[in-house]
Amino acid sequence: MSAKPSSNGSPAGPIGPTGKDGPDRQDVQGGERDPADAWHSCDCGDKHWGSRGAAGTLIIRDRDVLLQLRPPGLHHGGSWGLPGGARKTGEAPLGAALRECQEETGLDPGFLEPVWWWVASHGGWSYTTFGAQLREGADPAGVSRAGTPPGAAGNPNWETAALEWVPADQVADRDLHPGFAAAWPDLKRVLGQRMGLIVDTANVMGSRPDGWWKDRAGAAVRLRNQLEPVASSGLANVLPDGPSGWFPEVVMVVEGRARGIDQGESVTVVHAPGEGDDQIVKEARRALEKGRSPVMVVTADKGLIGRLGRAGTDIMRPGRLLALIG
Ligand SMILES: [Zn+2]
């Protein structure tokens, strides 16, 4: 699979948009040259802008996605793709995707909720596509208006000819950038999905002998703090089919003497009034009803796994979670 919605073209300098489509633009625009801003001659037969790889954002609003028309004159000009571009030296894919998205659409990254990512590996080069839901309160029309025609007075971003919300079912009808066209069937398949991660706290705590039995509440807080970054940094390779990684909505179910610990910043703590298992099944059903998909429950409890199997959830072993967040 290949995915490189707008593989060339990326701002170089630290202050605002600078050069695009090659080193010759750098000097004109005055940006400081990043060695990552260079063409990569790829094994796939195409060339890509960004020697360290590139990243882009698929902004999702219900069943619509925001497409960007590349101006004629750019590599694959006249095709529709995603806002995105080269990763700078030392820049993580998500940081690159959100920065490029802001530069090319004017949309504040605070209005985006990343939900999953796909990595299209071309051997020595890769493109990471982040799916991001448009949060409530964002002005979807404002996003579209942010794109001004190339060459227009004061145009801050000449690599965007137009931005348009396109219903998912009509995307394939457009003249798509070849990388985006190759990635689109996978992206479309998980368009409305967001992972729900439900943690059987007692079971996970019990799987590591760190003295939890002396201070159950303290151990639960330690686990909650370890889970905090998961919402923003994500979990990679957790399911064989589907995206390369998910940014899950995390729910920790606590019981017994671990009850009473505080809510996390991104982790929701649910205090089971009685049996933890009953509450976990309830939370799994709640997540499914909310449309979370997949719903992943972290437990090794055989009885609970049997009950959850009937509810339609996926299971992750505690050791796997601890290895991922350790
Ligand atoms: Zn390639």
The named CATH superfamily of the largest domain: Nucleoside Triphosphate Pyrophosphohydrolase
Number of helices: 10
Shape: elongated
- Cα-atom Rg, whole angstroms? 22 Å
Report the β-strand fraction as a percent range: 15-25%
Total domains: 2
What is the architecture of the largest domain at the second tier of CATH?
Alpha-Beta Complex
Provide the low-confidence segments as ranges. Answer: 1-30, 147-155
Q: Provide the helix percentage.
A: 25-40%
The CATH class of the largest domain, by name, is: Alpha Beta
Helix and strand run: HEEEEEEHEEHEHEHHHEEEEHEHEH
Which ligands does the model contain, each kind named once?
zinc ion
From the N-terminal CA to the C-terminal CA, the straight-line distance is 31 Å
Number of strands: 16
Given the helix and strand composition, which structural class is it?
alpha/beta
Task: Give a quick summary of the entry.
With 326 residues, the protein is α/β, with parallel strands linked by helices. The chain has two domains: 24-189, Alpha-Beta Complex (Nucleoside Triphosphate Pyrophosphohydrolase); 196-325, Rossmann fold.
